[in-house]
Structure to design on (354 residues):
């Protein structure tokens, strides 16, 4: 029996509510399979912890996490703690310090999911976003000069390294080759005359090694428009950290909503643990009511199973989500249902067992 050590940071708001269902689903898959099992260790890190200790995680938090095979994260952020503190010191710190440079976010319209686009068929929205996840606009570098004076200046630096661009773009080309899909790069070189010119150049350079991969290169403004007007144009998409953040919320909106959007933060070399999470936040507007949709977190559990080599379980979980959506019972309010978070999780497990 293979056992996996998984660190769980359920975090804030609806984070613990959706993570509970995610763990239930993972345990159910392990039991049904019989060949693997999970040892989950939960860490109470997040905004409550910050208010008590002044830190989002203990000083040796990264050392602790390093021992695990993977990390599951719920959500981080609370109205009582500034977002730039809570997110930079926990979620973004883990992504960066564990060199999880690939943020892999499926934008796939499952059968039965709500789509606000009048003309889109499920099979027409089927993309995988590869978002650069370690540098770019999220470098966290900059300066704040003369604060509070009329001369006040802030500088927010973007950092695009050759190594950083090459590795994420190469990962995307490899995936496109493997899956025989087209690859679209999204950038903005008409306005960002250093970073995005560099990005485009590297995209073209690496492309010469992949003559079999059909590519497209779009400006981010046009890409946003095409995602709504003609989503079938996109298969694999590679883009920078900030553009990927924004476009995947748009992707979530056209593929069933934030309650269905998941993401994997991967360190492909497996030198450090990778981290799996729903892409939504702590949703303070619905936290504590037991009505959050757990399916995004459950989808991220399927990404964990893929990552550990149990792709057939990954697929079974997605199939169970699709069945749940098609049947329409046991859905949470964001999907037009009246079920509680736990009822939705339980129904999914029944489908998995069926
Ligand atoms: P959000 O994703 O928390 O919520 C946006 C909207 O989507 C809200 O109306 C919310 O109710 C709804 N929603 C989100 N997840 C849902 C779910 N599972 N089921 C049903 N409805 C859901 O984004 P926000 O309001 O911009 O941010 C709230 C806090 O979360 C902020 O502190 C923000 O910084 C943080 N945040 C954290 C993460 C993360 O931890 N990965 C991601 C995004 C935002
Ligand atoms: C996401 C989130 C984070 C990001 C925030 C909370 C820092 O929006 O995972 O999409 O911007 O990456
Ligand atoms: Mn986001």
């Amino acid at each position: 029996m293979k056992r996996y050590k998984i660190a769980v940071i359920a975090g804030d708001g609806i984070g613990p509510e959706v993570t509970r269902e995610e763990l239930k689903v993972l345990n159910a898959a392990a039991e049904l399979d019989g060949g693997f099992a999970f040892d989950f260790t939960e860490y109470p890190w997040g905004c409550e912890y910050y208010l008590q200790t002044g830190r989002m995680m203990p000083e040796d938090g990264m050392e602790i996490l390093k021992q695990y095979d993977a990390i599951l994260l719920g959500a981080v952020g609370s109205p009582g703690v500034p977002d730039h503190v809570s997110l930079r010191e926990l979620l973004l710190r883990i992504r960066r310090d564990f060199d999880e440079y690939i943020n892999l976010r499926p934008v796939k319209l499952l059968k039965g999911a709500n789509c606000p686009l009048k003309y889109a068929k499920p099979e027409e929205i089927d993309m995988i976003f590869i978002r650069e996840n370690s540098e770019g606009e999220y470098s966290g570098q900059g300066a704040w000069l003369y604060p509070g004076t009329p001369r006040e200046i802030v500088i927010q630096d973007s950092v695009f390294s050759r190594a950083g661009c090459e590795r994420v773009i190469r990962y995307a080309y490899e995936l496109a080759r493997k899956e025989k899909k087209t690859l679209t790069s999204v950038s903005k070189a008409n306005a960002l005359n250093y970073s995005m010119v560099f990005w485009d150049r590297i995209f073209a350079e690496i492309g010469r090694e992949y003559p079999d991969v059909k590519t497209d290169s779009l400006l981010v403004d046009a890409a946003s428009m095409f995602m709504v007007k003609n989503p079938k144009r996109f298969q694999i998409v590679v883009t920078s950290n900030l553009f990927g953040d924004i476009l995947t919320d748009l992707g979530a909106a056209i593929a069933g909503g934030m309650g269905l959007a998941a993401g994997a933060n991967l360190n492909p070399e497996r030198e450090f643990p990778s981290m799996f999470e729903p892409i939504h936040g702590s949703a303070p507007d619905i936290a504590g009511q037991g009505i959050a949709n757990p399916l995004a977190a459950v989808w991220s559990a399927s990404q964990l199973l893929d990552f550990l080599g149990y792709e057939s379980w990954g697929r079974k979980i997605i199939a169970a989500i699709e069945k749940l959506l098609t049947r329409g019972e046991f859905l949470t309010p964001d999907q037009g249902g009246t079920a509680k978070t736990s009822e939705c999780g339980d129904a999914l497990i029944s489908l998995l067992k069926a």
About this structure: The two ends are 23 Å apart (CA to CA). The mean pLDDT is 98. The longest helix spans residues 15-33. DSSP finds twelve helices and twelve strands in the chain.
